[in-house]
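Chain A, query sequence.
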Amino acid sequence: MPPGLRERNEARMLYPLKLESALHVKVWGGRRLATQLRKRLPTAQPYGESWELHDSALAANGRHRGKSLLELTRQFGADLIGAGNDPANGMPLLAKFIDAADWLSVQAHPNDAQAKALEGEPRGKTEAWLVLHAEPGARLVIGLQPGTTRQELTAAIQSGRLEELLVFAEVSRGDLLYIPANTVHALGPGILVYEIQQSSDTTYRLYDWGRLGLDGQPRELHLDKGAQVANLDALPAISRPSGDLLVDGDYFRTWRHRLENGALTLTTEGRFQALTCIEGALRVNAESHDSESITLGVGETALIPACIAQFSISGSGVILRSAQA
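Chain A, predicted structure.
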């Protein structure tokens, strides 16, 4: 078989992949993943995160059912994740839900160059939060007081006084915070968010509110590296986007599509698309590929491979769509 024909036939083996969520217990977690996103939480422990798009996510439909995205990325390469990405580095983006019943640690993430230099990792971590629920008065940490020096930051961390240097901001449902790498940040109690980020789990904890982990021991802090990468010069702005395009960043774009007994046809432009339903129920179909349409209910996610040029969404609901920039 000629190489070009073989590659086209292999690409046709890809289709819209419905993904299984991975639930993570966290000391600061709660139960909103169940009450608001219909996740089945298997124990009474505090669940803080539901990972939706990630290397270890398993396909839940079709011929690739049970295979991880990392397996499929290495098998299909650019047909799945798009040109310009190294399949050896896995999925370039990660999407999750976060339920904060208590403060997350105050933390900062390295940028690409710092991640390579400090950790030998292929990418840093820029992220964005879309607030899906917020209790009245719920707050975030969005950075450090203007004029803070690195010496003052280090001293405050070492003496447990970092709270004095933090900038807090209230949020409500529909707010968006774009968090470039190096931003000192924390998610506060009473908030549920959708997070889209570079696929990296490199986190430097600067402060953990004096609490113990689920094992009864203090959680590890990363004072030297955290102080080294922390941005002292700028604060991110909380916005409230009204249009479809929520995030137009250096690494990813995110849209919010609202349908009421309607249909929407979209093109991928050679970039994989992560679709997450946050209201209602929506059908996803790619007619040019050998697959049945899939239905996404609240809290469910699908991946549209990069080789699928066009797909449609129909029904009534709200879907978040994220892709590489």
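The first helix runs from residue 3 to 11. The longest strand covers residues 252-267.
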